[in-house]
Amino acid sequence: MSYPIIQLKKNREQSLKRFHPWVFSGAIEKVIVDEESHLEDGAAVWVQDYKGKIKGTGLFAEGSIAVRLLSFNKVLLDLDFFYQKLQLAYQLRQQLHLTESNKTTAYRLIHGEGDDLGGLIIDIYGGHAVIQAHTSAMYMRLSIIGEALQKVYGKNLKAIYNKSEESLQQSIGNAENAYLSGKATLPVKILENGHTFLIDWEKGQKTAFFLDQRDNRALLAKYAAGKKVLNTFCYSGGFSVYALNAGAIEVQSVDSSSLAIEMLEQNIAFCQAKAKHKAIVSDSLKYINQSDETFDIIVLDPPAYAKHPRAKHKAVQAYRRLNEAAIKKLNPGGLLFTFSCSQAIDRKLFEDTLRAAAISAKQSVKVLHHLSQGADHPTNVFHPEGSYLKGLVLQLS
């Protein structure tokens, strides 16, 4: 078997020498095909430098990022290749004590470039795998990826669900057709650090639950006892559940989606705490500005304000307004858990924006914690773009 060869222009292989897994279209000199191969969107390709030396194997796409390398060797992207990648990822989650935990039954198995499979996300919920392909090339290989998953998990894998419709913005048919294997009765109950949540990947955002905030939710729980907490952009209530179970005296949860509030209330029902809880369907910034209350802890976990660099300026202004409003509603000594998941906003820019928000609010704040995604969302050191979640815990002085 042979793959089309992408030959790079002279001196354009430098990023590959630094093991960055992306090849941009402007770096391509020519495409070499033979009678066994042809180039089309999603095709497996070999990449070579201008001298003809193979530098790696990847998947081709029409667009700015022309190739996402999956290996820096000449290999075949067959069942054994994907099985080995998934097995390595599984072993990492074993080391993180996630695969056989009786307190946490949901985790990320594949995190794109962080697990050397750019364009692919796989989350595990109580033995069910939910896949999101972010490229058509990965989408074309879901069958072989599903087969590899079965080899890794064996009888412990109850079902595989394809949640690529949202990420690829294309229809994949009804929910039943989206199951690559098995079936599930939804919602499914999972545990996270001993807290119970109901998960519905057919109706929920992303793959169903924001697993990347697991460690940050646990950190909030350490501060929540006896506190009045406002959780904005709350989605299905992760931070709210942790706060209530940790002994918060009052929690208010705000989200603009009525479906999200429905899911939140289902999860709140599992809490044993006697604290007061209030669920509000509202725009979070509007609610903060209009509220005449103050809080001991406020959580700001908005959706990505900048999904591409062109939106960076507007995003910065939105983050500044949001954080300024929240800082003004903190009690003396209060804590702000604030996040950005926008890849176009790097950590320095986010922290500069928070500094500007504090200045506008005319408040002195100090940084207690620098936050990021959990270890099951690893960042490839050669692909810093994968470090997307940025957060700080600020204390009002």
Plain-language structure description:
With 397 residues, the protein is α/β, with parallel strands linked by helices. The protein folds into 3 domains: 5-71, Archaeosine Trna-guanine Transglycosylase, Chain: A, domain 4, CATH 2.30.130.10; 79-192, Transcription Regulator spoIIAA, CATH 3.30.750.80; 210-396, Rossmann fold. Helices cover 28% and strands 29% of the residues. It is built from 11 helices and 20 strands. It has helices at residues 14-17, 79-95, 136-139, 142-153, 164-168, 214-224, 238-245, 258-268, 284-290, 312-328, 347-361; strands spanning 5-8, 22-24, 28-32, 44-48, 54-60, 65-71, 106-111, 120-125, 128-133, 159-162, 179-182, 188-192, 195-199, 228-232, 250-255, 276-281, 295-300, 330-340, 365-371, 390-396. It has a 7-stranded mixed sheet with strand order 16-15-14-17-18-20-19, with helices on both faces. Helix 8 (258-268) links the parallel strand 15 (250-255) and strand 16 (276-281). The longest helix is centred in the first third of the chain and has 17 residues, at 79-95. The mean pLDDT is 95.
Summarize the SSE layout with pairings.
Layout: E1 5-8, H1 14-17, E2 22-24, E3 28-32, E4 44-48, E5 54-60, E6 65-71, H2 79-95, E7 106-111, E8 120-125, E9 128-133, H3 136-139, H4 142-153, E10 159-162, H5 164-168, E11 179-182, E12 188-192, E13 195-199, H6 214-224, E14 228-232, H7 238-245, E15 250-255, H8 258-268, E16 276-281, H9 284-290, E17 295-300, H10 312-328, E18 330-340, H11 347-361, E19 365-371, E20 390-396
Parallel strand pairs: 1-4, 9-10, 14-15, 14-17, 15-16, 17-18
Antiparallel strand pairs: 1-3, 2-6, 4-5, 5-6, 7-8, 8-9, 10-11, 12-13, 18-20, 19-20
Helix pairs in contact: 2-4, 6-7, 10-11
